[in-house]
Every structure is written in C-alpha cells, then in structure tokens.
Specification:
The chain has 100 residues and is an all-alpha fold. The protein is built from four helices and no strands. It is elongated and about 80 Å long. The mean pLDDT is 84.
Length: 100
Amino acid sequence: MKKIINLKTKLFYSEILGLMYASIPKVYAETDPLNAINNLSNFIFDMLTGVGTMILAFGALQFGLAIKSQDPSQRANGILTMVGGIIIVGTRVLLNKIIG
C-alpha cells in the first residue's frame, strides 16, 4: 500500500514538473548588446529624474513653510534641498556635457 502511494506521489510530482517545464516561455537574447545597455541607462536616468523632481518639490515646500514661519535656518535648508534636486534632475545633461 505504501509503495502505491509513493508511486502515485512520484508520478504526480513528475507531472507537475513536466507541466512547469512546458510552460516556461522562450527568452531570446537581444541582438545588439549596446541597445540593452542604453535601455538600462535610460531607465536609471529616468528614475533619477523622478527622484530629483520629488526632492525639488520637497525643498520648495520646505522653503515655503520656512518663509511662513520666518525661520532663516529652515530657509537655507529648503534652498539647499532645491539645489540638490535641480542637480539630480540635471545629471543626464551634466554627464552628456562631460562625456561629450
């Protein structure tokens, strides 16, 4: 009885593995490796631009709240945060100018 159960479970697992193997999609390599690298680079720069925009908006909010509360040190922090956001947003342009 125990051998029949073990045989049934082995068959079941082999069928599951066979179905999993049959359902694996075919993946083809990129014909031009530089195209894949450029796509990754564009994705990273787009992410940096999004993060820089959020930092820039946070700095503007921080600066606006500092003006309302008349806190000079907070104003300086807001301005520095906005400048940092602008630099992060402009990284693609800066790197293109450096590289040429």
